Structures are given as structure tokens and as C-alpha cells.
TrEMBL record:
It comes from the Bacteria. Gene3D superfamilies: Homeodomain-like (1.10.10.60), Tetracycline Repressor, domain 2 (1.10.357.10). Keywords: DNA-binding. Residues 35-54 bind DNA. It comes from Donghicola mangrovi. Pfam families: TetR_C_3, TetR_N. The lineage of its organism: Bacteria, Pseudomonadati, Pseudomonadota, Alphaproteobacteria, Rhodobacterales. This is TetR family transcriptional regulator. InterPro entries: Homeodomain-like_sf, HTH-type_TetR-like_transc_reg, HTH_TetR, Tet_transcr_reg_TetR-rel_C_sf, Tscrpt_reg_YcdC_C. Coiled coil: none annotated. One of its GO terms (molecular function) is DNA-binding transcription factor activity. GO terms for biological process: negative regulation of DNA-templated transcription.
Length: 204
């Protein structure tokens, strides 16, 4: 089997520029509303040059999503069965909130894909994502059975963490318009509020 040659420095640079540009365009316009011309312009490349690296809009979108999903799973992977249950769940919530603060475009891109029925991510959602969530559900149920946290539905707990943290990225414009505060203040207040909310929910 012929091995692919490693990318040159300029090829690596252009690939990264295309993926960064695609993130900007896809997160703003969604998959359907985005074009190769928009991505090429954002990347500072010609469309033929872009097509040298990726054969289609679908190929670019798939690569962006695959990298995004791996990063999205990391905060949940870090939940430690041997740690203090409330601390572990709160730490997961805080990591998700930090991702909404630091990676709002990625959050909106993920949300857009889900709203469209996840046509390019369903295999990952029903595979790697579901397997990871199922494994953490087992741990949370164990903590509940041991009386270390209140009895709670682990799946809906995780869904609640997703929705309450990602809101600050997906609805950023609405949040800022209503609160009229800077980003640091918004996220500090969100952290305090969500910490209180989940602590009260989880305490026995």
C-alpha cells in the first residue's frame, strides 16, 4: 500500500487556514448557507487552490466536525469515578462553560449540525458520544446508589449541563443584549449561578 507523503509546511499552513475559515463561515451561515467561494475568500485562497486540498464543501465540513467532536468529548472524559461526586460534576459543568466562553463558534457549528438532523455526525453521536455518556451515567448512578449525591436521572443531568452552559455561546447575542455586561462578567455570574443550582440539586 502506498503511504501518503507528509504535508509540506505550506500545505499544512493552507489546510489549517481552510479549516479555520470554514469554522468562521459554517458557524455563521450553517452548512447549507455556506459556499466554497466564501470559505476560499475567508482563507485568502482561490477556489481552485482550496479544491486542491479538499474535494468538496462536505469534505471540509466533515473534517471540521470531526476535530470539534473530539474536543467536545474531552471535558466529559475527565470526569473521575474516584473523585468527590459533586466536585466532579461541578468541574464538568465549569469545563463546559469555559468551552462556551472560549469556543463559541465551535458551539454554534455543533448546534447547527444537530438542528439539521446531524446528517454528517450521526455515526459519531450514536457511537463515540453515546458510549462515553453511557459510561459516565453508570458512574453517576453508582454515586447515587451509594448515597453520595441525591437520586437523579444521569442522562437528563448531563443534558441539563449541556443546555445551560452552551446557551451562553449559542445565544451569545441575546445574552449580551439583555445583560449589557462584558464577557468576563457574564461568565463569572453564570459560573456562580450554575454552581449554586447544581450543588443544591445534587446534595443529599
Amino acid at each position: 500500500m502506498t503511504q501518503r507523503k507528509p504535508k509540506t509546511r505550506i500545505q499544512q499552513k493552507n489546510t489549517e487556514a481552510i479549516l479555520e475559515a470554514a469554522l468562521v463561515v459554517f458557524s455563521q451561515f450553517g452548512f447549507r448557507g455556506s459556499t466554497l467561494d466564501q470559505i476560499a475568500k475567508e482563507a485568502g485562497l482561490s477556489k481552485p487552490n482550496l479544491l486542491y486540498y479538499f474535494p468538496s464543501k462536505e469534505a471540509i465540513h466533515t473534517e471540521v466536525l470531526e476535530g470539534l467532536l473530539d474536543n467536545w468529548l474531552d471535558p466529559l472524559r475527565e470526569m473521575d469515578e474516584n473523585g468527590d461526586p459533586i466536585d466532579e460534576i461541578l468541574s464538568y459543568m465549569k469545563r463546559k462553560l469555559e468551552m462556551s466562553r472560549d469556543y463559541p463558534r465551535e458551539s454554534r457549528l455543533f448546534a447547527n449540525e444537530i438542528l439539521q438532523g446531524a446528517p454528517r455526525m450521526m455515526h459519531a453521536i450514536t457511537g463515540e458520544l453515546k458510549e462515553l455518556v453511557d459510561s459516565k451515567v453508570v458512574i453517576i448512578r453508582k454515586w447515587s446508589a451509594e448515597g453520595r449525591i441525591a437520586e437523579i436521572d444521569p442522562y437528563h443531568l448531563i443534558f441539563s449541563i449541556w443546555s445551560l452552559t452552551q446557551h451562553y455561546a449559542d445565544f451569545d447575542v441575546q445574552v449580551r443584549a439583555i445583560l449589557e455586561e462584558d464577557q468576563d462578567q457574564i461568565f463569572a455570574e453564570a459560573d456562580s449561578y450554575l454552581t449554586t443550582l447544581f450543588t443544591r440539586m445534587l446534595k443529599v
